[in-house]
Specification:
36% helix; alpha+beta; globular; 148 residues
């Protein structure tokens, strides 16, 4: 199911996938979604949301049961992505592999680049990971760090 809905203050888009080609499509959809917002999200926010979606979708494909549902949404001040997969297992923090190239960076990046990340049970026996950030330049964490 692919569907975009826009109201006066909120926009949302829903898509599903089960392959690496669908992961590429999820990135393209995210870029188009942010570009279609009025007012548009800043380029930094758009790039960050694309990276977050890429990590969440890739992790769902690799570790979450091989398929995902992506929901993008935006309000007046935020943009967010929610990725659901059939696995009930929450992401776990692992030390990044600096030498072997086996990964471990994605969950760290998602948490660092966004203002909030939640992991909730469902749908069904799976889970949904939701990540949100400010719609303007940088995220709240970066803005706080810049101000310090």
């Amino acid at each position: 199911m692919n569907d975009t809905k826009i109201t006066d203050t909120v926009a949302s888009h829903l898509t599903m996938g089960d392959s690496t080609a669908d992961a590429r499509r999820a990135r393209d959809i995210t870029r188009a979604f942010t570009a279609g917002l009025d007012p548009a999200a800043s380029p930094d926010v758009a790039d960050t949301l694309v990276l977050v979606v890429s990590e969440l979708v890739t992790n769902a494909l690799r570790h979450g049961g091989g398929r995902y549902t992506l929901e993008l949404s935006a309000g007046p001040d935020t943009v967010s992505a929610s990725v659901s997969d059939p696995s009930p297992t929450a992401p776990r923090e692992v030390a990044p592999d600096l030498n072997g190239g086996s990964g471990g960076f994605g969950w760290h990046m998602v948490r660092r680049l966004t203002d909030s990340v939640t992991v909730a049970a469902g749908p069904g026996t799976g889970k949904t990971i939701s990540a949100a950030m400010a719609r303007t330049y940088g995220n709240a964490k970066e803005q706080q760090a810049d101000a310090a």
